[in-house]
């Protein structure tokens, strides 16, 4: 983290086809983090649009 504080960026947009169960979304997010070399244990929060 820089002296300017935390930085907010968009990591990616993930297309989901077919079912979009909670498990499907969690798996897609986990794969995106892994593909970008981000340790999930360092994630503080993830925002969604609240869709169900």
UniProtKB/TrEMBL annotation:
Protein name: DUF4371 domain-containing protein
């Amino acid at each position: 983290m820089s002296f300017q504080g935390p930085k907010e960026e968009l990591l990616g947009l993930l297309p989901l086809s077919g079912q979009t169960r909670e498990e499907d979304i969690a798996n897609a997010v986990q794969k995106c983090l892994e593909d970008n070399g981000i340790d999930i244990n360092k994630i503080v929060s993830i925002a969604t649009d609240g869709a169900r």
